[in-house]
Amino acid sequence: PLEDGVYVVGKATGVNVPFNAPAEHYKMVPDESRNGRYEKYLPLFRDENFSIVKWEDGRKTEYGGVEISYKSNSIDAGMLSYEYKWYRVAADKEAQWYFSVDEDGLYHIIIDLNEPEDLDCAQIALFPADWNVRGTCNNWGATPMEVESFSVSEVVYSLSDVYFTTAGGAFKYEYTGIAWYAGEDPGIRTPS
């Protein structure tokens, strides 16, 4: 039997199976800091559909959305930028019941069902999980990592023209989208 939970399903995941048989791989992870918020990092294929579905006590609920924002933000004075889509969860005829992405890649998907009822509405956020490296190798700037290969089960990133040294060569990998909702705010808020 299918476990209760929130799932990402559809051809964009690279696996087209009936909803009653999705792999555990497609189950979204509950956010321990906020009831009703789930997230998942998942490889998605462009121009194919996926949907977000909750299975609870033998009942299926599909979540559609109306796009309320498409933004491109710049970090570090324009050194890096990322784009994301923001939806309000809606059950009306305006709702888009399937989602898609423009590029193959690893994506961060968040749904906040607004169970604490402290937001304007339940919301879905979708953005590419782009990675970069920072460190003494680039004066703590941000050097984007390129996707070298992509499949249903893995995304391989590479760097070029970045040189690491053993003498004081501190560095870290950084996910560019995480700054977008990190911090003290416990919920997904409509961006200004």
Helix content estimate:
under 10%
Strand line-up of the largest beta sheet: 1-4-5-6-8-7-3-2
Estimate the strand proportion.
35-45%
Largest sheet geometry: 8 strands, antiparallel
What is the CA–CA distance across the termini?
43 Å
What is the CA-based Rg, rounded?
Answer: 18 Å
Globular, elongated, flat, extended or rod-shaped: what is the shape? elongated
Mean pLDDT equals 74
Structural class: mainly beta
Model description:
By secondary structure, the protein is mainly beta. It contains no helices and 13 strands. Strands 1-4-5-6-8-7-3-2 form an eight-stranded antiparallel beta sheet, with no helix packed on it. Strand 2 and strand 3 form a beta hairpin. It starts with a strand and ends in a 17-residue tail after the last strand. The C terminus is likely disordered.
Write the layout of secondary structure elements.
Elements: E1 5-9, E2 29-30, E3 37-44, E4 51-56, E5 59-75, E6 80-90, E7 105-112, E8 123-128, E9 131-135, E10 143-144, E11 146-150, E12 155-158, E13 171-175
Antiparallel strand pairs: 1-4, 2-3, 3-7, 4-5, 5-6, 6-8, 7-8, 9-10, 9-13, 11-12
